[in-house]
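not sure who needs this but someone in the group chat was asking about Small heat shock protein C4, putative from Entamoeba invadens IP1 so here u go. i didnt clean anything up, its just raw.
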Amino acid sequence: MSSSNTPSPQPYATESSQQIMKPQPKWFHLYKYLSSTSNNKVFIDPNGVGHFNSMTWEPPCELLDSGKTYLLKFEIPGIDKKTLSLQFNNNWITVAGNKEMPKQEGDFCFTEILYGQFRREVPVPIDASKDGIKAFYNEGILYVKLQKLSESEWVNVEIK
């Protein structure tokens, strides 16, 4: 029940809140997931041995929508592409591999370069097709190109 003396709530919109209220792109939930899960996090592997061998890391990535395709880019400099593994399963791309530590003379005072095993699992939009995935590695970047499903591949189902 409402009282005649109680004002009804009025929407309050500023210029910045109107920007927030705009509809989000269909991949926005992926952005939120990616930003909450990585950016050079290093995880300790309890089965590892030694300081450098006990770390698993996640390479940074970005997802671009170019209309008919998606382009997923992973920043993985300094690796041999033969050590890379790429899989697509249930709208997730998984990249894994190993970045070998080069032989060095002397001891590190410090290092910000990540070595060892890495793995990154990234959700892709639901309209990304598993067919026709192309991947190539160039100048430290792994590029994964995904075709979008055409509208003809979506099926309308009659409800009875």
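also The mean pLDDT is 77. if thats useful
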